Amino acid sequence: MESRNSITILSHLTAWSLFGFILLFYPPLTWSITVPTNFWIKQALNLLIMIGIFYANALYVAPKLLFERKGKVVFGIWLAGIVVAFLAVARVIELKLEVLADMSKIMNKAPKDPFRLDFHLFMIMLLVMVISTSLALARRWQADAQTRERIEKQHIASELSFLKAQINPHFFFNTLNNIYSLTYSDVPVSREAILKLSRMMRYVLYDTLGDSVPLKQELSFLKDYIALMALRLHECTTLEFSEPVPDKDYWIAPMLLLPFVENAFKHGSSAMQHSKIQIELKVTDGSLSLRVFNHIAHENDGFQLDQGGIGLANTRKRLELLYDNRHTLVTREDAGNRTYEVLLTLKLDRENAGHIAEPV
Question: In what residue span(s) does the Signal transduction histidine kinase internal region domain sit (predicted)?
Fold first, then answer.
């Protein structure tokens, strides 16, 4: 933080040094006369006054007036008044230091009218106020953008918590019922199912508290979820799952892939007609691709694919915020053949992305 503040102060000092030199000090150096010392003192005082007005306007006046309902008129009056006041003070400084008289002697000309507008100084001051006001607007827009981003992140954290809350009771108890049935017919499978359920619950409750998790953990969770959901499928439904083997260690937002898979099981399983669920996952060169295909069971007439879980619409929001310009998402629905397909590709992180949002 201290380093950042030092850089900011240094950048401001550099900007003002260049500004003052180019607009106030360099032009007199090109004149064919030797400028008196009091002239340079006058230029330096003008620059100091400009700097004071610049920061007073950028940090206090503009933020207070520009963003109020009736403040724009008052700000316009302030803008005109401060420019006029500056020109008046600059003229008084000239007269007190006798700059006009000394310059007229050097140039062998009659002294300038003290009430004449210094157009060059007027334009410089106008430029200072424009830049100052623009800086105030930029700071406000940046603050608003950060506020919106913080709200979005909190919204995402809430969605993730909602997903966890939904998985815990509904999925948990349905799976327990299936495992209970297995204890009468296939004890080894029931034991394996209990182990998978235990891993999933640990992952949901503890490992997803941050905003990034190792990809291997996310894939393991998804694999366990698919295996447990397969216990509930009827013979009419065919399940195909292609498991990836990541070439390196990657990180991903937790439970980002689940809504697509959950959606397929919700609308693709059928007890009365043949249907298929296909889940294909690939990880190559730092990119993850997911394809989820499912038939839409006839008993799901009136379905809405964006319902259930946190929904595909909310998942899109998570992708846009967490993987902006690093993902593509395509959904295809064939009403005639009653099929639905999701194609997702995203660029994975090689390092932990940190805590994007605090868990709710």
Answer: 159-235
Q: Are the C-beta atoms of residues 86 and 53 closer than 8 Å to each other?
A: yes
Q: Assign residue 286 a region: left if phi > 0, alpha if psi is -120 to 50, beta otherwise?
A: left
Please state the separation of Cα 154 from the chain's center in Å.
12
* Of residues 133, 145, 15, 150, the one with CA closest to residue 67: 133
Domain boundaries along the sequence of the chain: 2-117, 151-347
Residues 28, 121: Cα–Cα separation, whole Å: 13
Query: What was the pLDDT predicted at 233?
Result: 79
pTM: 0.55
The secondary structure of 21-72 as a DSSP string is IIIIIHHHHTSSS---HHHHHHHHHHHHHHHHHHHHIIIIIHHHHHTSTTHH
Pseudo-torsion of CA 247, 248, 250, 256, nearest 10°? 10
Topology of the domain covering 151-347:
Heat Shock Protein 90 (3.30.565)
Query: In the chain, which ranges are continuous DSSP H helix?
Result: 2-20, 26-29, 37-56, 62-66, 71-96, 99-107, 119-166, 172-185, 187-202, 215-230, 258-268, 311-322
Residue 251: strand pairing partners: 214, 349
- The alpha carbon of residue 159 and the mean position of all alpha carbons in its chain are separated, in whole angstroms, by 17
Lowest mean pLDDT among 219-228, 268-277, 346-355: 346-355
3-class DSSP assignment, residue 291: strand
